[in-house]
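# nightly structure sweep
# worker-07 picked up a monomer target from the shared queue
# config: single-sequence mode, recycle default, output format = C-alpha cells
# input follows
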Amino acid sequence: MTSSSAPADLEPHGDPERFRHVLSHVPTSVVVVTGTCGDTDHGMVIGSFTSISLDPQLVGFYPANTSTSWPPIRDVGRFCVNVLAQGQGELAGRFARKGGDKFAGLEFDRAPHTGAPIIPGIVAWIDCVLDREIELGDHSLVVGRVMDLCVSQSEHPMVFSRGAYPSLGD
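# output follows
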C-alpha cells in the first residue's frame, strides 16, 4: 500500500502547538544513539525509537534534519542504541545539548560489532548498521539492521511524557 495526498476536501488542522500538546500525551522511549567517526565519539538523545521488523531484525528512530550529531554517525554507517533507565535524566540532558564533548568524563564500553559507545547504567543496548534513511518532513526515519543486542539490567526504561520523565511502577 502506498500513500498519496489527502483528498482535496480534507485539510490538516495546521496548528503545531495543538499537535505538540496532543502528542505529548503519548509516552515515548528515551534512547541515546552513539557512534564513532575516526577518533571522535558522537551521541544524541532520541525520543522516537521503535522496533520495526523481526525478520530481518530492524529498529528505527527519527533524528531532526537539523541535527548536527546525526551526520557523522550516518557517514560511518554504524551506531549503538542505548536504552536509558529511569533516573538517567541528567544523562539525557547531556546528550540533548548541542555541541561540546558529550562524553567528557564518562567511562563507557564499546559495542562488539560497531565499536560505538555503550553508556553505563542503561537498560539495554542495540548494536546496528545503517540499513536506510528516509526523509520525512522535518525529520528522517533511520532504519538500523541489528547486529547484536543485550539487556544490561532489569530496571524500567526511561520514558518521556507531557514534558517530563515519569516513573514507571514496579
